[in-house]
Write a structure and sequence with these properties.
alpha/beta; FAD/NAD(P)-binding domain; 2 domains
Length: 447
């Protein structure tokens, strides 16, 4: 006699590529549901709180303060497997993700959350002399360059060379560029001012070049103006409507609003402008029918899936989602978090034979910090600036850190830095070497 018992249904296998905000929020939301088994793939073994990378680059925080091992975050999630590896390709017919080295992982549902990387607008040779800020390695490279420049200036006997070494150019006036320029200004004007005997760090020149009519171009004009005033108080020269036309070992060439070009001799150039799709994002474009925007982001449906592949979702910085013809959502952490949580809810609903409305972003505002007691915030109900915005920024970023332990460490460091104006993570971890092309120029390692 045949058994009338139904055979158990195998859990649906969800593969999440990328353990940033979107990927982790999705994994955590799916982790308690026995209807799913989840595999999280990331080329690094830690989740990185990218909004605070600039503080690592300027010595305010250590890398471990803003990074948490992925396995630790997901340690009590029995149906979640963590794989360290770089996803480089996929087979959408066989439903397999292909890792660097040839390993394959099958999936029922694929969630791509690999983010973006820097775009030099076709000038990839600039990467050598103008590192960006997306990874811990980038932040440490920036830290190396910034503090090595001051050390080299202290040693130099040539006033012109000192001036070049103490000139910093930040390309891009979005939140990263503004925060980075402001942090360097804080270093020069306050933190380092009594630590050198041969140079006066308060004479440091910091140039922030932005092609748009204002810094923080996505912010209202009053907040952008407040941010610019705060930057100028820290000695930052803000150049708007200004394009970079060339970067080399000696500095940058800028095209200013009147159409003429100016050369800024600078030892340190830092890139905070332009993004393009990650390698896995390009693989999606090659293997499945999808459209990329000008930045290489993947255009998605209202449920964040791909038009021809409802089993593939794209979220976070990699996704181009423009609801109801509006502007595309920005590449910020809250968008990724909400999208990760949404896809998890959608998959749970589908398992139970239900549908879910289109993704809707709940904009809770945006904030940028310029320096001590200087920040701007575009909240849903009001605009805030100055010390009020600064305290709100601290609170928001504290809550955004994944692990409680990180919050305690970061708050302790910030409190100490606040009281003493001291930045304790200013290690230079390799010895500068001579480099041809400019006398006295410190060696700069490749990204």
């Amino acid at each position: 006699m045949a058994s009338t018992e139904s055979s158990p249904v195998s859990p649906q296998h969800i593969v999440i590529v990328g353990a940033g905000f979107g990927g982790l929020y999705a994994a955590k939301a799916l982790s308690q549901d026995p209807a799913f088994r989840v595999t999280v793939i990331d080329k690094r073994n830690y989740h990185l709180f990218q909004p605070l990378l600039y503080q690592v680059a300027t010595g305010k925080l250590a890398p471990s303060d803003i990074a948490t091992p992925i396995r630790h975050v997901l340690r009590r999630r029995p149906n979640v497997r963590v794989v360290q590896g770089a996803a480089v390709d996929l087979d959408p017919v066989a439903r397999k993700v292909i890792l660097n080295g040839g390993a394959e992982i099958g999936y029922d549902i694929l969630l791509a959350a690999t983010g973006v990387k820097h775009s030099y607008f076709g000038n990839d040779a600039w990467r050598e002399d103008a590192p960006g800020l997306k990874t811990v390695e980038h932040a440490l490279e920036m830290r190396q360059r910034i503090f090595s420049a001051f050390e080299a200036a202290e040693l130099s006997q040539d006033p012109a060379e000192q001036a070049r070494l103490m000139t910093f150019v930040v390309v891009g006036g979005g939140p990263t560029g503004v925060e980075l320029a402001g942090a360097i200004g804080e270093l020069a004007q306050h933190t380092l001012k009594d630590e050198f005997h041969h140079i006066d760090t308060r004479r440091t020149r910091i140039v922030l070049a932005e092609g748009a009519p204002q810094v923080l171009s996505s912010y209202p004009a009053d907040l952008a103006a407040a941010a610019e005033r705060s930057l100028k108080k820290l000695g930052v020269e803000v150049l708007t409507r200004t394009l970079v036309t060339h970067i080399d070992a000696d500095g940058v060439r800028l095209k200013v609003p009147d159409g003429t070009e100016q050369v800024v001799e600078a030892s340190t150039v830092l890139w905070a402008a332009g993004v393009r799709a990650s390698r896995f994002g390009q693989a999606l474009a090659n293997r499945v029918q999808c459209t990329l925007d000008r930045a290489g982001k993947v255009e998605v449906n209202a449920d964040l899936s791909l038009p021809a592949h409802p089993e593939i979702f794209v979220i976070g910085d990699l996704a181009h989602y423009a609801p109801d013809g509006a502007a595309a959502l920005p590449g910020v952490a809250p968008v990724a978090m909400q999208q990760g949580a949404y896809v998890a809810r959608l998959l749970k609903a589908r398992q139970r034979g239900r549908s879910l409305a289109s993704f809707r972003y709940r904009n809770q505002g945006s904030m940028a910090v310029i320096g001590r007691h200087a920040a701007v915030g575009d909240l849903r109900f009001m605009h805030v600036t100055g010390i009020t915005a600064w305290y709100l920024w601290v609170l928001v970023h504290m809550m955004g850190l994944i692990e409680f332990g990180n919050r305690v460490v970061v708050m302790t460091r910030w409190a100490w830095n606040y009281l003493t104006r001291n930045s304790g993570s200013r290690l230079i971890t390799s010895v500068p070497e001579a480099r041809t092309g400019h006398a006295g120029r410190a060696h700069r390692s490749r990204d």
